[in-house]
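Input chain follows. Return structure tokens only.
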Amino acid sequence: MKLPDPTTSASKPLRDPRLTAINFVADAINRTLNLKEIADNALDAILSVMKVDAGSVHIWQDTDKALHMFAWRGLDESFVRQVMVLRKGTEVIDAVLNGEARIIEDFTAVNRQVLPVDAARAGFYSAVLVPIRAHGFVVGLLGLGTYTLRKFDESDIDLIEVVSNQIGNALVHAQLQADLRASEEQYRALVENSDDAIYIADTSGRPRFANSAFPRIFGYALYEVARTGLLEYVHPEDVDTVRRALSGLLGGESIHNLDYRFHRKDGLWIDLQCSGSVFSREGEHVSELQFIVRDVTQARQRQQQLLRRNRQLAALTALAGVANSSLNIDEIARNTLAVALESAGMNGGAIYLADLKVQRLRLYMQNGLPEKFVEEVGVLKWGEGIPGYVAASGQAVVVGDMTVHPPAVPSMAAPHGFRAVIVVPVKAKGELLGTLALVNRQPMEFTPEVVEMITAMGNQLGIAVANARLYETQLRENEKLTALVDISSGSAQQLELEPLLQRILGRAAALLEAGAAYISHYDATEEQVEIVAASANFTRLIGMRYPSTLGLFGQIRPQRQGRIFTRQEVVEHGYSPVLRATGVRSALVVPLISRNELIGALSLTRHGLNAAEFTPANLELMEAFASRAAVAIDNAQLLKDLGRKNHLLQLLIEEAHHRIKNNLQMISGLLQLEADTAQVGSTTEFLRTAITRIQAIAQVHNLLSEEMPEKVDVHTLITTIVHTLVSSTPGTNGMPEVTVDVEHLWLGADQAVPLALIVNELVSNSLLHGQPRGGHTLRSRIQCRQQEGHVQLVVADNGGGLDDGKDWREFEGQGMNIVAQLAQVNLRGDLQIHSRDGGVRAELRFEVVLHGPGPAERMPSALATRRA
């Protein structure tokens, strides 16, 4: 249900107990984020301040539309069971849920229609019940009771309402993330049950759909205004404003918090606040509009009252908003200082942050202080000046006029014309984080309210600074995790050695904010260390070699554990003059170990007198980083070595192919000499046949030896074989006409060799034995194509067919036996030879082998058959 903004109720000026209770609740939020603890602490504070006997906090639950007891004090068990759940339907409960505070002065005069509990029997005499609000909504109930007669005045109610609002804001803050993750169905339910009227209207503003809050806010049911619209009920002075807003909405401008007055059906004039946007379009034209309307009548009234009397409380609320809206310490400090100065009406101020290790305060943010004064107070020791005294003692210092009442500690602000000063500690969870100091050139009277307000601001600042530091720490941890994942990732493992080393150096230096870094490689065979990579300012170290027992590496080598070195130890043990002369403040060296072998070390340095020394936490992180980096370096080195060995192997294979080709050519040459000197006849023919076969095999190795291809281009192979055969074989009727139609397809050596021999035999038979009829010229056609993973070879001529009725498998020639064996055994293909078109047509079809045995594993079977 919609209620006024709790930060805007009006009454008289605050009194001391009020700010005390508010400050206590803020401190409770500082100490814990547990809602139960916040409620318990708030009850303790309000019971103590209001001097009442008992109290309870009920939280509204939408699931069963009831108030459930969340925390209590001073109640016996029987009464707790009686008031554990409070439901709507009685005067007091309904009034509180509608945003009204109720006072019960005498429970003996209250019946069950007024309040659904028998408080008088439990011993209670008087009580006050106020709503717990958060951002304009009632989220619960705060009840306080006494066992004696007690009259609660207006100031009591104001104080209780402020505390209840603190509790409500804490509830909303804790549940904000859960609300943001609500699903679309939850959002729809929220719209339907919203205290704001949400409706969809056409372009003239006539509503078509509305949620359940629509009739409650406007006083009209949807059907009563669906035809006429709502504009006629708008206050005459606001009609033009509403019309202009509607026109702007149709033109593409949104409506944000438009205020106007509306005349309800029951005759009441109410203040409404409206936001509107385009809900749907038909093409480029707007078809429907969405409006969210809130009744702000009571909120406006109470807001004006609260602003007039609670200027200090508004300042605290503003400061809490700053702290909750940002995790940037600079922004938090700047805004806090501005709010504090404005609220206290003072001229200047400063925020100091504490370094607990060295017990010093460092000026972090200032406003309105002279430059010379800032130089003097930039760094303060514990106990130095008023801020140093506050840091050391933990107590606030307040002086209205230092010329009349000099502070116990000499003020460094007085010589610069400042007369009033207030300094409070900045704490979070009981730990000192710094101080908040405000000064003024004129004397001031610091009321208890002002002191407590500034103290509360210090507490709020402490919460914000602690949260911001926690966020920054988490960011650094995320960066560390990212670096570890990066070095362990597949991309890092695939890098070559030199880029990988530079990547490791950059990541390591960024992780620890180091000024420089370098990597050394350990050669266990020669017991030498060599600097193999370094950051920009240490490049002179690269290439330096020295015994592994010397330098910083020699200090970590025996135990193979990382170590932090001081400046003096770097000068004493550092091997390189470059390292000793660069003003190293601190050095961190960790071993690089892979497969349980020491392969080197990673070293990082920080420079300058103001640089922080490395910590054990830095060492632990870098050892984890180095363990992953060592594996990546080792893998990169293995990859580099493997590449070098692979290159040598390629050279050896290339040389082997070259020598095989030369040996085959030598054999071919010897056979050619034998054929030239032999007598004409069968011996000469056999020698020439053997020569062509050897040349076919030599051609395969020749192609394999060129640039070390893994496969042979069939087009080049067959073209070369055919050209050699045509140029060396005499035709019976003149030069034959040979057509070669071969695709560029690639085969491994295990298939290229038998294919070359088959082509050699078939083409040789065609050229030697083909006898076209009628003395025509011999025409031979060689075709080779790849279809769906298979190779199809066709050799055809017009040189006369096979003898009638004779199958090619019946031929006793050695050449046909070789062709058959190579086709069936080595290629595992299908070979068909038959007469066609006045000649012989041979067709071979076999599957391309992607991965199979090499020629050395298949050739012996074919050769064995030939020898048989």
